[in-house]
Amino acid sequence: MQTQTEFLKLRTHLEQLIIGQKQLLDRLLISLLTGGHILLEGAPGLAKTTAVNALASGVHAGFQRIQFTPDLMPGDVTGTDIFDPEAHQFKFVEGPLFHEIVLADEINRAPPKVQSALLEAMAEHQITVGGVTRQLPDLFVVMATQNPLEQSGTYPLPEAQLDRFLLHIVLEYPSPDEELEILKLDRKLHYGEDKKDIESALTPETVLAARREVADIYVDEMLEKYIVAIVTATRNLGEWKAEWSEYLLAGASPRASIALLRAASAIAYINGRDHVIPEDILEIAPDILRHRLVMDYAGLAANITADNIIEFLLSEIPVP
User: Fold this and answer.
1) Are 19 and 110 members of one domain?
2) Per-residue pLDDT at 217 exceeds 80
3) Does residue 47 sit in the same domain as residue 138?
4) How far apart are alpha carbons 253 and 310 in whole angstroms?
């Protein structure tokens, strides 16, 4: 498949530009290939914005960054009706959401009304202003960031909105060797060579075609049952470990099963395969599930996290 080859090339180009964040780059490609939104959590300086910007350049898509702040208004992201004195009528001016790839920087700083407008965009690929509903681009994907170190002036994301994110990625610092490479690359770009555009034949149209190819990736029925077993186990945690039965308020919904199937198919695609293997599911399951498990206070008091629960279930559920 020609489009699959182009995605493999783009992956290689991105790895040369973004050092030490291979997992992040793979997840960004998965987001594109499935049409799913992605939540990136990590300290400042881990190349989140740079990676998303580079990805948008690689597929020649419209890109817009929104810096979320507590004083942001819904119209600042959706657009608003502006009165045109010459035409003596109102006209709609599109907001930043009318782009194909939107970076929502520090998304948890936005107040509830803005989150509500963003949720409609994420869930329905449309926005409603002044009683008029307008469609967003077919490729529309939200790639949001949040800083786990700062809680002042933030608003916890509602569970319904969290569930709309395909993936929740927790970024780690690069290794010393990788950080040394970052220093060398930065010096080369900052003082020496001009930054080169990513060479890619991908366009929004070919990305949409690639999504159809991902949908055709073969998934054995045994693997489908394995996916369902993982997700349903989060709703019946006590059956797997009785002492943890009170640690979860709610497990993952069927949307998690769908997300896990789509993401595993995308992993197979970017690795040049035409079928899903169990390792694809095991690799992506934590990123699919960690934001969908609602922890109870008992779990928090016992220092048990969603990642602990996911790791335990993946080790206990038999792999096909």
Assistant:
1) yes
2) yes
3) yes
4) 15
Look-up of token digits 């700083």: 109
**Phi, psi torsion values for 169, nearest 5 degrees:** -100, 130
Cα 272 from Cα 274, distance rounded (Å): 7
Q: Looking at residue 264, which CATH number applies to its domain?
A: 1.10.8.80
Strands in 68-213 per DSSP E: 79-84, 89-94, 101-105, 126-129, 132-135, 141-146, 165-170
Q: What is the mean pLDDT of residues 294-300?
A: 85
Task: Tell me the residue range of the domain where 81 lies.
Answer: 2-171+181-191
Instruction: Give residue-wise pLDDT tens across range 219-273.
Output: 999 999 999 999 999 999 888 988 888 888 888 999 999 999 999 999 999 988 9
Quick: pLDDT tens for 8-66.
888 888 887 788 788 888 999 999 999 999 999 887 777 788 888 888 888 888 899 99
Separate counts of helices (H) and strands (E) for the chain: 14, 11
Model confidence over 111-155: pLDDT tens digits?
Answer: 888 888 888 899 999 998 888 889 999 999 999 988 776 666 677
Return d(Cα 265, Cα 31) in angstroms, integer.
Answer: 12
Q: What angle do CA 51, 216, 170 make, to 5 degrees?
A: 30
Asked if residues 276 and 223 have their Cβ atoms less than 8 Å apart, the reply is yes
Task: Tell me the C-alpha distance between 28 and 167, whole Å.
Answer: 9
